[in-house]
Each structure stands twice: as C-alpha cells, then as structure tokens.
C-alpha cells in the first residue's frame, strides 16, 4: 500500500478534503467534532503531508535563502552562524549558496533559491550592482543586505560605526600615554576604509596630536609585512610609539616584519589590529584589536527578515548600528 493521501484522510474521517485542509493549516474555523475526526484519521493512517506541495499552496516553506560571497571569509562564516542559529529558533531553515564575487553567479543564486520557494533572502556581499538590486526588488522576495564596504540607496541594514570604533581604539592608545600614533590604512576607496581613517583623525584632532598615515595596497599579512620598511622608517623619524593597522592580518604581517628587524612588540612599539579575527588571539604576542560581533549582526538580520516575511513591524526602518569592543591584549602597553 502506498503512502496515504489527504483524500484517504477525508474518507476515513467522513468529511470533505477542504475540511481536512482547514484542520491541517488552521486556516478557517472547523467544528470540534470534525477536527477530532480529522486528527484521529491522521493518526490512524500515520498521514504525513507532502511539505513541498503544501508550501506551494500555502506560500510558506519556512526556508530562507542565504547568498554569501565566500564562506571561506572568516567574518562571513560568523554571520552565517548567527543567521542559521537564530533562524532555527524561529523555525526557519536556511539554504546556502555562494557567489564568489561573480555577479552572474549571484543572479543565478537568486533565481535558484526562488525556485526553492524561499520566503526571504539574506545576501552577504562586499559589492552588489544596482542591476542586481533591481532584480531583487522585482522578485518581490523580502531581503536583507549585509555589506560592510558600501552603502546603497533606500537599503537599510545592520551595520557597525567603523569611525566610532577606530576612534575608541585610538583614544585607548592615547589614554595609555602614546603621543605619536601611526595609522596603516588600506588605499582602496570604500566606506569602511574612509570611516576608519575618519575615526583615527577625529581622535587625534580632539587630542591636538599630529597625524601619520601610510597606505597598503591590500589587507593581507603579506601587505602588512611589505609596508614594514616604510612604517619603521617613519616610526624612527617621528618617535612613534604605537601603530594602528586597518585589520588584524595587516597588523600580524607588520609585527612579523618588526621581529625580523629587531623590534620588540610591545616593548619597543605597540601595535593594534582591527576585527578580532581568530588568529588575533592565537598569534604571539596576542593582538590588541576591536572585536566586531558578526554573530550578532547575523542574528539581528535574520530577525529583521522574518519580521518582513510576516509583515510585522520592520526593525530596519533605519540602519541598526551595533557596537564593537576594544580588546587590549599583549601587543600594546601603557607608557604612562
């Protein structure tokens, strides 16, 4: 005998198929007697509805699509964890797809997930074109966009105030007695880099201190190592006692250059990173940095998406700004 159908349930309960459907979906009132007959028939037949067919009818799949640029990027993996774990609290599962920074792959992922009847999308990217945003809106699928490098017109998101966070980091160095502080910036012109440089400058301006800025071509540890010669030359010329780097990887690369050139961190020079990547707390000396709560960003984004799906109050009517935390470790010291 094959799997029982909704028709078999209706026959055994002595009711119509529409009555069975109302009981299963709790969509319209049904008399207590009819409800009991339907539930008894479902239990007796061990009836399990076809969830895919049901989702097509009800337009409710309890699935959310997550499109990530690259799951190998550490902070993106943390975002996904927050999305997945909090999604499950709300009884939503995720379907994950990667675009690897390719616009065509991103569009294909949107199309693919739409065919899977996802109720909403979270897109984690470092760049998205206006054309793809138009396509998203045309799909009429609720979505949340997470992109820390860019802002988009009429798209609200969960964000970090990178200017404020870098400012707090520099202020902590000033409070520890550092007068001359070098900032190793990334030369790419994007919102994140602009804001971090602003935070550095604001902190120094308010303290009446001089700026020292040099630019790396990239944001890897190799880039931090390669800028080391230029940075140490400036350190000696300007009696700099602390160096703040655009991220933890650049900081670690720069510290490696210091080790290779007889500079003791933090005895001779304090160094900070930014982001609190996993390696920041493993490397020796452990890197002072700013911790960004990526898990929480993912958690808030999925909550916002589910509220949009359910057409409840939108918690992203404006950008949701989430705070980081200055983490002081072994790579910095007070010189007061």
Automatic annotation (TrEMBL):
MF terms (GO), sorted A to Z: alanine racemase activity; DNA-binding transcription factor activity; transcription cis-regulatory region binding
Domain HTH lacI-type stretches: 4-58
Swiss-Prot/TrEMBL keywords: DNA-binding, Isomerase, Transcription, Transcription regulation
Name the UniProt record assigns to this protein: Transcriptional regulator, LacI family
Organism: Anaerococcus prevotii (strain ATCC 9321 / DSM 20548 / JCM 6508 / NCTC 11806 / PC1)
Keyword rRNA-binding in annotation: no
EC number: 5.1.1.1
CDD domains, per database record: HTH_LacI, PBP1_LacI_sugar_binding-like
One Pfam family named in its UniProt record: LacI
């Amino acid at each position: 005998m094959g799997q029982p159908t909704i028709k078999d349930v209706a026959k055994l309960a002595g009711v119509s198929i529409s009555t069975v459907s109302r009981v299963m979906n709790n969509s319209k009132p049904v008399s207590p007697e009819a409800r009991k007959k339907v539930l008894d028939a479902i239990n007796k037949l061990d009836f399990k509805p076809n969830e895919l067919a049901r989702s097509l009818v009800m337009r409710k799949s309890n699935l959310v699509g997550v499109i990530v640029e690259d799951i190998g990027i550490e902070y993106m993996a943390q975002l996904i964890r927050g999305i997945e774990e909090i999604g499950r609290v709300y009884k939503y599962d995720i379907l994950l797809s990667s675009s690897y920074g390719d616009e065509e792959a991103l569009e294909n992922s949107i199309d693919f997930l739409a065919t899977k009847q996802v109720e909403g999308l979270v897109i984690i990217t470092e760049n998205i074109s206006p054309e793809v945003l138009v396509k998203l809106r045309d799909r009429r699928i609720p979505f949340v966009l997470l992109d820390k490098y860019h802002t988009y017109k009429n798209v609200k998101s969960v964000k970090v105030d990178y200017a404020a966070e870098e400012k707090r980091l520099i202020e902590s160095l000033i409070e520890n007695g550092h007068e001359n502080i070098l900032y190793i910036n990334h030369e790419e012109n994007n919102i994140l880099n602009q804001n971090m440089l602003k935070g550095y400058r604001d902190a120094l301006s308010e303290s009446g201190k001089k700026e020292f800025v040099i630019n790396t071509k990239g944001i890897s540890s190799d880039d931090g190592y390669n800028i080391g010669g230029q940075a140490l030359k400036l350190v000696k010329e300007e009696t700099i006692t602390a160096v703040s780097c655009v991220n933890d990887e650049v900081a670690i690369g720069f510290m490696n250059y210091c080790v290779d050139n007889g500079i003791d961190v933090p005895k001779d020079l304090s160094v900070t990173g930014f982001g609190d990547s996993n390696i920041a707390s493993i490397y020796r000396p452990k890197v002072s940095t700013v911790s960004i709560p990526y898990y929480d960003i993912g958690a808030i984004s999925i909550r916002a998406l589910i509220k949009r799906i359910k057409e409840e109050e939108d918690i992203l009517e404006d950008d949701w700004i989430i705070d980081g935390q200055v983490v002081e470790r072994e790579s910095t010291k007070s010189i007061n």
